[in-house]
Amino acid sequence: MRKILLAAAALLCACRSEAQPQAPIPTGAPKLMIVISVDQFSAELWNEYRPQFTGGLARLASGMVFRNGFESHAATETCPGHSTILTGDRPARTGIIVNSWVDQSAARADKTIYCAEDETVPGSSSSNYTVSPRQLKVPTLGELLKARSPSSRSVAVAGKDRAAVMMGGHRLDQRWYWRRTGFTTDLAGVATPVTVTRVNAAFAAALAQPRLPLDPPPVCAAKAQTYTIGKGKIVGNGRFARAANDVSAAEDSPEFDGAVLALAAGLTQELGLGRGTAPDLLAVGLSATDYVGHSFGTQGQEMCLQLLSLDRDLGDFFAMLDSRGIDYAVALTADHAGFDIPERVPGGSWVDPSLNADTVGKAIGAKLGLSGPVLLGGGYSGDIFIDRGLSPTDRAKVREEAMKSYRSHPQVEAVFTREQIAATPLAITTPDRWTLLERLRASFDPVRSGDLLVVLKPKVAPYPKEFGIASTHGTPWDYDRRVPIVFWRPNIAATTRDDPVETVDIMPTLAAMIGVPLSPGAVDGKCLPGVTVCPVAGAVAAERGKR
Ligand code: ZN
């Protein structure tokens, strides 16, 4: 009898956990909402290192963990990924389809537009750009929060400008990002906080000193196997030693996130975030995991040292907030995941350099007797643009030849036309079940997208080996799409969930948490029940007009 009762109780528990969380959902808005993006932090890395975390990431792991999160769109790059997190919209709606796209009508010679720039500013170029949220087509949570409660502050800090721009949006109180010599801002009329001056001075002083190699704990030392990539570059056993004033080495190391978190902590104190009557929002973009991945890969000693250091630094950051008695909640995710060096991946390969769009275009031009670039875009996959200077007849011929050429290559999975992608309905299933075309549709913009979209086969790194880039991302495959999505606040029930959710779900979830109403359908994402009390459909429809 007891066994039957236990079995029945177990069944009851299973039903309860399906239907509703076992602990009460925290209610009421936190005073400070912190949203952290760890650049290139894959779900695989989160799951692999989770048992090793003892600091800030361990604290977050005690919250609600979606270990099957998705940057659901195809173009898994930094700018599109960051554009989803606090807008609640996929790139097809944010307009941020890739980091840089070709605009053949642009006045500049390279016809390339950077995602976080204002190309209309005289003197601006795609390489020396004027930082701006101009390209972002939708508002962020911070903007909606400030519209609803003007005394709320919205602050964004990040290693990369595009992370701070895409998470902060068009109107915010402070935005700071790293630019070689210090943290800077694009916001006019904002007095520089003392914290920024102090952190810049402290980081410059640290940079002026050489850094001794880090001492790897056994879990990291066990990964110290070397591989050679690029032009004789050895990766796998790095320990982040650097020479004095080697800025690039500092950026590609745990030091970098430490500086961003020091800035975030200082600004929280100086601006009194979380101390007002209305909720404040702090977006933090931690870029070093991406830089470490690109420099050394994801499965070596270097990434191990980086993630354990990030765990410690986040622990210090949260401890500071605790010591100040700030009522805060945290959401953490990533802008995309990543693919390790092919040498460490069974079945992995580097892309064939002959797949470069310029090379393919030249061959087609020669065959058809056409001069000029013929194909633009410059990459080895993704958006390919056909020269608009050609006649419609020649463009059609080029398109046909390009499709034939790409499709005949053994590393190419598929080639789609812009018409095929545009005609694809938006996906309505969970992101783990999306077709390739549905992933591409979520990255499609009718003006900014290319004429053809080339998809490489799985496990083909999208840059040639000679480039010396270790880990990569940008493909529509799940190893680039799957990211952790984690929510923490005091008293949240520790839960790990396997249901596939999207980074666009973060914004409507946090909007519900801090009392920013959204009309149904206003954003692509959905409020995640169990993290907070989600609004009943239709209850807030009258509150706001369509965004
Ligand atoms: Zn990134």
Structure characteristics:
disordered C terminus; 2 domains; binds zinc ion; 10-stranded mixed β-sheet; 4-stranded antiparallel β-sheet; 547 residues; 20 strands; Alkaline Phosphatase, subunit A; Gyrase A, domain 2; alpha/beta
Task: Please describe what this structure looks like.
With 547 residues, the chain is an alpha/beta fold. It folds into 2 domains: 2-18 and 37-96 and 136-345 and 478-546, Alkaline Phosphatase, subunit A (3-Layer(aba) Sandwich), CATH 3.40.720.10; 352-410 and 412-456, Gyrase A, domain 2 (2-Layer Sandwich), CATH 3.30.1360. The protein contains 19 helices and 20 strands. Strands 1, 2, 5, 6, 7, 10, 11, 18, 19 and 20 form a 10-stranded mixed sheet that branches. Strands 13-14-16-15 form a 4-stranded antiparallel sheet. Strand 13 (375-376) and strand 14 (382-386) form a beta hairpin. Bound molecules: zinc ion.
What is the fold's blueprint, element by element?
Elements: H1 2-19, E1 32-38, H2 43-49, H3 56-61, E2 64-70, H4 78-85, H5 91-94, E3 100-102, E4 112-114, H6 141-148, E5 154-158, H7 161-168, E6 174-178, E7 183-184, H8 194-207, H9 218-221, E8 227-229, E9 233-235, H10 247-251, H11 254-271, E10 280-286, H12 288-296, H13 301-323, E11 328-333, E12 349-350, H14 357-368, E13 375-376, E14 382-386, H15 392-407, E15 412-417, H16 418-422, H17 436-441, E16 452-456, E17 460-461, H18 478-481, E18 482-488, E19 495-497, E20 501-502, H19 506-513
Parallel strand pairs: 1-10, 1-11, 2-19, 2-20, 5-6, 5-10, 12-17
Antiparallel strand pairs: 2-18, 3-4, 6-7, 8-9, 11-18, 13-14, 14-16, 15-16
Helix pairs in contact: 4-7, 8-11, 11-13, 12-13, 14-15
This protein binds zinc ion (ZN).
Zinc ion binds near residues 290, 335 and 336.
